[in-house]
Every structure is written in C-alpha cells, then in structure tokens.
Specification:
- The chain has 434 residues and is α+β, with helices and mostly antiparallel strands.
- It has seven helices and 28 strands.
- The strands form seven sheets. The protein has a seven-stranded mixed β-sheet with strand order 15-16-17-20-24-21-25, covered by helices on one side. A six-stranded mixed β-sheet has the order 14-12-10-26-27-28, with no helix packed on it.
- A hairpin with a 4-residue loop joins β18 and β19.
- The longest helix has 22 residues.
- The termini are far apart.
C-alpha cells in the first residue's frame, strides 16, 4: 500500500516525527557521565557510565587501535523523587593493563558509542611517586576550580583524583537532573584519571542512594561508602563520616565501618615495609577554625570523639594508634593546614622542623573547589595548632615522592593557579606515634 502525503507541509511533519523518534532513542542509549575508578588492583580499572534505556555494557580499547573488548553489566537506578526517574548504571572492568601504557577507549554498545577518551595504566609496585589532586565541595554551579582541573588532568599531571565529599549540590535535586548534569561536567576529568570519592552530607537523600549508585569504589564491604586502595608507597583509606550524623539510617553503619577500619589499618601496618604511608580521607573534619558553627568548630567534634555523650567509635584515637600519617578532609568551604595534632595538642617534630618526624597526624581541610554556597569565613582567632588558612577557591596537590618524603601544595584558582601554601612531611619511620 502506498502512503500518499498530500502536501509538503505534512511531509515535513512526518519527516520531523521520524527524526525525533530516532534521535530520542539514540539520546537515551548514548553513554554519558563516563568515569574511571581504581578497583583495588593497579592493573585493573573500572569504567562506569549511564544510559536512559537498557543496553549492553561494552568497552572497546587498545594502545593504537580499539582492538580489545571487555563486557560488563548494568543495574537499574531509580531516583527517590516524585517522578521516580530511572537510569541504567553500567560497569565494566578492564584487567591485565600494562603499567605506564596509554590506552584509548570508548564505551557503549552497538546502538550508540561514546566519544573517544584515554587513560594511562598505573604501576602496581610501591617504588614510584604518585601525583594526586584533591578537593571537596564542588557543585555544578560555581565549580570554579573545574576548568583548571580538566586541563591539568588531560595534560597528565595526575595519577588519581580524590573528591572528598559533596557533589553537585545536590545529586538528587530536580529528580536527579542536577546529579546527571554534574556527572557530565566532571567527565572531562573523570574519564581520563581515576576519580576516587567519599560521601558528604549533601549526598544524604534516600540513604545516600545517588552516591552509592553512581560511583564504583573498590571492595565489597562498604557499598562505596568506605574502602581502601594502594597507590605507590601509600595506603589510602576512604571513610563515610556521615554515618555519625545520619543515625536515622542505622547505628549498624557506624559499627560496621569502625570494625572494618580496625581490620584495614591493622593490615596496613603489617605492610608498612612496602607501603609506609597511610593517608585517610573523609568529608567532615575533626578540626577547623571557620565561624559557621559546624561540628569541627566544637571541642568534642563527633568525627573526632564519636557518638555524642557516649564517645563511641571516635576516629581520632583509632587513627593515632595506627600511625596514620595524613588526614584529608573537606566540608568547610576553605583550605586549612594544621600543625601535627592529637587530642587538641600540637605534636610538632621540632620547633624548627614541625613536619619532620611529627609526633601526630597532619590534618588538611580542602573544601574550596567551588559551589553555589560560596566560600567560608574564618573566626578572628585561629586554633593554636592551625598553621595556614585561606578561603580562596582552589584545590590541593599531593606528590608522594618516596617512603620518607611527601609534598603537598594548595592552588588558588582566584589567583590564576598560583601556589599559596606548601609543605613537606618527612618521616624516617612510620608507625605508632611515641
């Protein structure tokens, strides 16, 4: 039967409807929000992305052509808002990667492929010097540090990125549309460099469901909420400080993480001959000198001493007893470097060289990447163990040179990428503090 369209106008409408149908289907199956993460083994990476229709989960990759192929699976994630918007989160593991080799890749399926990206496979041994960018509290509005981070990541300046909580502001807003847009924005960093995360208070909706679904962190114990991984001479430990502040989701989460931390830190100390540095990262700090009344402004901060009144499952003593070298935090929209400290007491190595063989962990707060809430302000008087503070937008870089030397610097985006603070931690030995 021949379909006769009586006029050019109707023919145009017909063609437009057909094109809309095709393009809508392609958009729903086209991969987006692509990001790379470590799996716990340096020779293996996990690629994660989203589509809005069910498709296969395929990665084509290689060093000079897309001659290798890996497959995985997807899970349906439904936002908890009134529209119950669904999307499919895809995960594929790439194994047997050659250290130091640059790979090109795209993700998707036969119905739609992503753009072409690249990454460099990491070494699995401890005898190299990882370079890490870290920050917290980045939104999809006023993400002032993001363009500079995008440029530096694609230039190969970093081996990994740590995002220390608070994403998008918020990922569940507008039935998850804000989260989708944020994940698209960070793709220019996260599709090229392992993007390692921990949860913040802005992810609390629906028991942190967006955070748990959208990221792929190592390990099976913590559902992305707590985990650890090795990178060069460092054992990194990511934690969920929010368990202490959202007890309506269950006290078990606090206990489960604390017991896991005890086991993980004990094993890390047994392995200090190979991985001497232990570095933790979590969202809410133990100490800060901001004037906003947050938990870290109080003498008995919950992150530090544990559940109020009971003082159960506090993290400061646990980290101190296991000789944690460096503790990284965010939440405050500022940067603050502290002298080595334990139990509100300065524990410098010496007056002349406070960070050489310090007698306590070093704390860094770095939550000034930029978001719609703006920057923080400080109290007139800083804490006696606060060494440097700034509320300029920016982010932090760390270079772990070897078993004894770790370098850290703060970049000001307000000043066009100028380094406004830096320090060396020098340790002849690692382990329990005297």
């Amino acid at each position: 039967m021949l379909l006769v369209l009586p006029s050019p106008w109707l023919r145009g409408v017909f063609v437009g409807i057909c094109l809309l149908a095709v393009s809508t289907g392609q958009v729903k199956t086209r991969p987006e929000q692509i990001h790379v993460s470590l799996s716990g083994s340096s020779s293996e990476l996990v690629l994660t992305w989203s589509t809005f229709n069910a498709t296969d989960s395929v990665v084509e990759y290689g060093t000079t052509s897309l001659n290798l192929r890996a497959t995985g699976g997807s899970s349906l994630f439904v936002d908890g808002g009134s529209l119950h918007r669904p999307q499919y989160i895809h995960r594929v593991s790439l194994t047997g990667l050659q250290a130091g080799q640059r790979y090109m890749y795209h993700v998707g399926s036969a119905v739609a492929w992503s753009d072409l990206f690249f990454f460099t496979a990491l070494r699995s041994d401890a005898s190299w010097s990882p370079r890490v960018a870290l920050f917290g509290d980045m939104g999809n509005e006023n993400a002032q540090s993001l363009p500079r981070l995008q440029s530096e990541a694609q230039q190969g300046m970093y081996d990994a990125v740590l995002h220390v909580g608070d994403f998008a502001y918020d990922m569940n807003t507008d039935d998850g549309l804000v989260g989708d847009e944020f994940m698209r924005q960070i793709e220019a960093v996260a599709a090229y460099v392992p993007y390692m995360t921990c949860v913040g208070n802005h992810e609390n909706a629906y028991n942190f469901s967006h955070y748990k679904a959208r990221f792929s962190m190592p390990g099976d114990d913590g559902a992305n909420m707590f985990y650890s991984f090795d990178l060069g001479p460092v054992h990194f430990v990511g934690i969920a400080t929010e368990f202490y502040f959202y007890l309506q989701y269950g006290l078990f989460q606090v206990l489960h993480q604390y017991e896991w931390l005890q086991r993980d830190l004990e094993m890390a100390n047994q392995n200090r001959a190979e991985r001497p540095w232990i570095v933790t990262f979590g969202h809410r700090p133990m100490y800060c000198s901001d004037d906003d009344g947050d938990d870290c402004t109080h003498s008995e901060s919950i992150t530090r001493v544990g559940i109020p009144y009971l003082h159960l499952f506090g993290l400061e003593k646990l980290f101190y007893d296991h000789g944690v070298d460096l503790e990284l935090w965010a939440h405050e929209h500022s940067y603050e470097r502290f002298w080595p400290v334990y139990n509100e007491e300065t524990r410098n190595g010496s007056t002349a060289s406070p960070y050489t063989n310090p007698r306590g962990p070093v704390h860094i707060v770095t939550g000034s990447a930029g978001c719609r809430e703006g920057r923080a302000s400080f109290r007139n008087e800083s804490l006696p163990f606060s060494a440097f503070r700034s509320n300029e937008y920016g982010y932090t870089r760390i270079n772990i040179f070897n078993s004894s030397h770790l370098y850290l610097e703060q970049v000001s985006d307000d000043q066009g990428g100028k380094v406004i603070d830096h320090m060396w931690i020098v340790k002849d030995t690692h382990g329990a503090y005297p």
